[in-house]
């Protein structure tokens, strides 16, 4: 009997020891899970904070660029630029025009590169919708033309076409704004895009740049040059 009681006591002791070991293991697992979860949460919080800060920095940089003056930029009083829709030829005071009366239909300007000249009266309507118009003459290098075409092709509310009789080799126009640049790598190109694609000068922000004429870069039609 004494031997049996001793054996039972030993068995209970082993069972208790095993239970304590299991409980300790469970506590360790819970602590590890909590620790890993905490690291993951901290990582997500840190990453989220980084993304928000980056977006904030990018927005600040964009706003700063939009406010910064562009060297040698020409401006016209937007209030004095006509905005009537006409279906007759229009004589503009600048080349390329940056505003004035224009055709009722706009040139498609959803990043469209036109290889032939387009009608000014239709392009001006695109400017009214907030587009930037990139133009070049035969003095522009093929490399610059290609680089600018690539940029326009990736940017909504822009269009590009040749204007043989313009004064500068490469010119950028928006409603009431214009600048002549030295080449595609000129930092004023990016600055002009940042500032004036759907910029504060736009008379009709958000108006369509598709559904007009000259889709697929096939060249324009319209009234007059």
From TrEMBL:
Q: Which InterPro entries match?
A: DUF3105
Sorted keywords for this record are: Membrane, Transmembrane, Transmembrane helix
Bilayer-spanning residue ranges = 31-53
Pfam families, per database record: DUF3105
Q: Tell me what this protein is called.
A: DUF3105 domain-containing protein
Q: Which organism is it from?
A: Streptomyces wedmorensis
């Amino acid at each position: 009997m004494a031997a049996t009681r001793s054996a039972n006591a030993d068995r209970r002791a082993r069972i208790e020891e095993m239970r304590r070991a299991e409980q300790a293991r469970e506590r360790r697992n819970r602590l590890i899970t909590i620790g890993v979860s905490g690291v993951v949460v901290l990582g997500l919080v840190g990453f989220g904070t980084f993304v928000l800060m980056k977006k904030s920095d990018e927005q600040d940089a964009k706003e700063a660029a939009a406010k910064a003056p562009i060297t040698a930029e020409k401006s016209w009083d937007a209030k004095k630029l006509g905005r009537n829709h006409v279906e007759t030829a229009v004589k503009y005071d600048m080349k390329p025009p940056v505003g004035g009366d224009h055709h009722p239909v706009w040139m498609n300007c959803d990043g469209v590169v036109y290889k032939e000249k387009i009608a000014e009266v239709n392009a001006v309507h695109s400017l009214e919708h907030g587009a930037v118009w990139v133009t070049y003459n035969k003095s522009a290098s093929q490399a610059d033309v290609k680089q600018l075409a690539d940029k326009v092709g990736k940017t909504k509310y822009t269009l590009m076409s040749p204007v043989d009789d313009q004064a500068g080799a490469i010119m950028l126009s928006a409603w009431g704004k214009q600048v002549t640049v030295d080449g595609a790598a000129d930092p004023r190109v990016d600055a002009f895009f940042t500032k004036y694609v759907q910029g504060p000068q736009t008379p009709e922000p958000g108006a369509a740049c598709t559904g007009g004429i000259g889709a697929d870069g096939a060249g324009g039609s319209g009234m007059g040059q």
